[in-house]
Design goal:
Layout: E1 4-6, H1 13-20, E2 25-27, E3 34-38, H2 42-52, E4 61-63, H3 79-88, E5 93-98, H4 105-108, E6 113-117, H5 122-131, E7 135-136, H6 151-158, E8 164-166, E9 178-181, E10 188-191, H7 197-204, E11 208-209, E12 238-243, H8 246-262, E13 267-271, E14 283-286, H9 293-309, E15 314-318, H10 326-336, E16 341-343
Parallel strand pairs: 1-8, 2-8, 4-6, 5-9, 10-11, 12-15, 12-16, 13-14, 13-15
Antiparallel strand pairs: 2-3, 3-7, 4-7, 5-6, 9-10
Helix pairs in contact: 1-5, 9-10
Family: Belongs to the SUA5 family.
Organism: Cellulosilyticum lentocellum (strain ATCC 49066 / DSM 5427 / NCIMB 11756 / RHM5)
Enzyme class: transferase
Length: 344
């Protein structure tokens, strides 16, 4: 398959036509790049799973470009969902609703619920409007790898497997959307993201956090939202997180680096601006400053992919504060490490 690389983002008609014909188009969004297909076309959605190598019980998020598109896709809009929509849509927030009969089961991973997001990025908004379709869109990468935050990584993973890739800017947030289940009595965060628990609590008064955020799902347990069940966000390198007081972490990581080098391994370190000079690894990458966790979130996935570019065998990473968007950073980092954490 020849993949069309679309660099003129003012001319999206070609991409819209591809979607209308059941094809696949990768588009920038404010979270990460997404792989889009007509959410109401079962065969098109199946091709998303095929192109990514994604398990079919992993639900997809449906993207809309105005509130009128929501009603046909859901049975009802609970009051708490309406409140969250008023405050955070368009933006990096996905809401779980009871699905209408219009939504194919291949989109919902066999569940009776559907995940829906109204993105704020102008390109995907224009794409939805030009095609006239709700778009199912997981991250535009090979399943399990770190999500792409720029077009070059999409090309790296999916060129020759999909119909078109729209080249836009780097993703603003760098981590996928927050997912909130609004079908119960209390809003429940199923995946942390750019809309933080503190922000949601400020408008709803209370919010619960699904315990599956901090551990792998058990065998046979269905994922309620994308990213909950399978290995995600993982570079080819082994990732190990070292968590504790900063001076102890630096000392321990340098011990681990020496040990890994003695075994002939190439070693990478995911550090911060404040700590990067303390490590003698083959590749040290700063994700940013701990004074601005938003910057670290934006750089996380690209850093993990850069270790693979350098054929790094093992990556030692600092832990980041679990506050605000730090919860999303650590959720992705812990999954990339398979929950392999050394606590000091």
């Amino acid at each position: 398959m020849k993949t069309s690389i679309i660099t003129d983002t003012t001319a999206l008609l070609e991409a819209a036509n591809i979607l209308q014909q059941g094809g696949l188009v990768a588009s920038p969004t404010e979270t990460v790049y997404g792989l889009c297909a007509n959410a109401l076309n079962e065969n098109a959605v199946k091709n998303i799973y095929k192109a990514k190598g994604r398990p079919s019980d992993n639900p997809l998020i449906v993207h809309i470009a105005d509130l009128e598109m929501l009603s046909p896709l859901v049975e009802e809009v609970p009051p708490m969902a309406r409140t969250l929509m008023e405050h955070f849509w368009p933006g990096p927030l996905t809401l779980i609703f009871k699905a209408s009969s219009l939504v194919p089961k291949v989109v919902t991973g066999g569940l009776d619920t559907v995940a829906i997001r109204f993105p704020s990025h102008p390109i995907i908004q224009q794409l939805i409007k030009a095609s006239g379709l709700p778009l199912a869109a997981p991250s535009a990468n090979t399943s399990g790898k770190p999500s792409p935050t720029n077009a070059s990584r999409v090309i790296e993973d999916l060129e020759g497997k999909i119909d078109a890739i729209i080249v836009g800017d780097s993703s603003k947030y760098g981590v996928e959307s927050t997912v909130v289940d609004t079908t119960g009595e209390v809003a429940t965060i199923l995946r942390p993201g750019g809309i933080t628990a503190e922000m949601i609590e400020a408008v709803l008064g209370s919010v619960t956090i699904d315990p599956a955020i901090s551990h792998a799902l058990k065998e046979g347990e269905l994922p309620k939202a994308p990213g909950m069940k399978y290995i995600h966000y993982s570079p080819n390198a082994e990732v190990i997180i070292v968590d504790g007081e900063e001076s102890l972490v630096i000392s321990k990581m340098n011990e681990l680096i020496v040990s890994a080098h003695s075994q002939g391994k190439k070693v990478g370190v995911l550090a911060t601006d404040e700590t990067k000079e303390h490590f003698k690894a083959d590749l040290v990458i700063s994700a940013g400053t701990t004074k601005n966790l938003t910057t670290i979130a934006a750089h996380l996935f690209e850093a993990l992919r850069t270790f693979d570019d350098a054929d790094i065998d093992i990556v030692y990473s600092l832990a980041f504060p679990k506050k605000g968007i730090g919860n999303a950073i650590m959720n992705r980092l812990e999954k990339s490490a398979g929950y392999h954490i050394i606590k000091l």
